[in-house]
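Appendix B. Chain record.
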Amino acid sequence: MTTSPRAVLSLIRKGESETLEFKESFGREAIEALCSFANTSGGTVLVGVDDKGAVTGVPAPHKALKDWADQIAQATGLHPSILGTSIKGMPVACIRVPESRIKPVMFHGRAFKRSGSTTRQMSVEEITRVAMANVDVTWDEIPEVRASLADISMAKVKAFIGMAKREGRRPVPAGTTAVELLHKLDMIRQGKPTRAAILLFGRSPQRFYSQAILKIGRFRSETLIVDDRRIDGTLFDQVEGAMSYFRDRLETRFEMTGRPQRDVIWEFPLEALREAVTNSLCHRDYMGTRDTEVRLYDREILIWNNGGLPANLSVEALKGKHSSIPRNRQIAAAFFYAGLIEQWGGGIEKMMGECSAAGMPEPVFEEVQGFRVTFRKAAAHVPIHVSIHVTTHVAKVLKAASRRPSSRKELQRLVGLRNRVYFLKRYLEPLMARGWMERTIPDRPRSTMQRYRTTAAGIEAMNAASRSTRRQPALKDAGTADRRR
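Structure tokens predicted for this chain:
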């Protein structure tokens, strides 16, 4: 480390940061700062500089340097580099420590970490994470001492064996029992199931980890929640519970392809949503107390978990080829064998590809007190099937729904049609796309209580058509041929 006056002045001009701290004198706060540097990325304390960057100097620095080194070593076990220099005739001491290989470094029974330009005490959870990283163990690999094999559903393990066999990613010899597979996956340690085994195959995972749930809701605004659901059970249950919620709440449209079957186009691509939910459950920090969250808004879906990115991986790097650094190794491996994860580190690429194929903007990936993915609809576009005229049948539907909200069955019966899908695609959906009709329960399109009513625009279109027919020959009724349907 260079301590030339020019180099020190250059540091001072940069100001305090994640790797630089100013102290007017040496003492407890200086040692805490050094401890925080050792627990993060290393750093330097300049003694004899105030927090505004003004050089104040320190008395008798050369005599004090060895004593400071001894104090630091005895209190923390660190052996820093300490050198003195002079700025405008005033002595300044430079104390530097590298990142420690063994963490956490403690001072008087407490551990500290650097957060921006501040030193803050580490929580018990943070200390635990650091300690696990020292021995290369992830949270989910630790045996759950409160549990036994009786807490594992062998039926769920056998179902997983079936998934793994179908995917062909994990050879499972014929006759392998559920317990044997758990041993092969290293999910039984010291005679106890691991935390991953409880979350993946447990009879009641939330009895051990109450925080391990997924909350999903439909929002009209940040403060107005119109529908919400708590999804617990195993992580596999949570993935399927979220997908079931999406299928119930998201709208669809049909696209004619020339084949006997039509393509179903979802409001948001389901495979991208599945990938995002799976990744959230796989990479969340189960030591934290917040639930995994999914929020449905009118034009976007947010999927959030409390697990941030690894220190050496940025949001931008996610979009390119990158290695997978799973926070929970056993959970990630099980999801891969079951086919929920396509390939290591490929989840982001899959989400982007699915959105691109659906004509939607690229998902937004952010570190916001954890990690968040936002799916947004494309800019407003003209819906399909909006070309519709006020024929006799259309007028009947609009008139009936203007008197009182009516069910789909009531309106379909009114025009004498038997085919439900045809009525939806030929009349109801085009009327709503044109803005002439609306749902009474817009956030629950499949509700059994759903009714439809004519909007002000629909009433105006109906009145305009009525005025036109009084002046002109009657409109040809496009619905005549529909009576046979």
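Further analysis of this model is presented in Appendix C.
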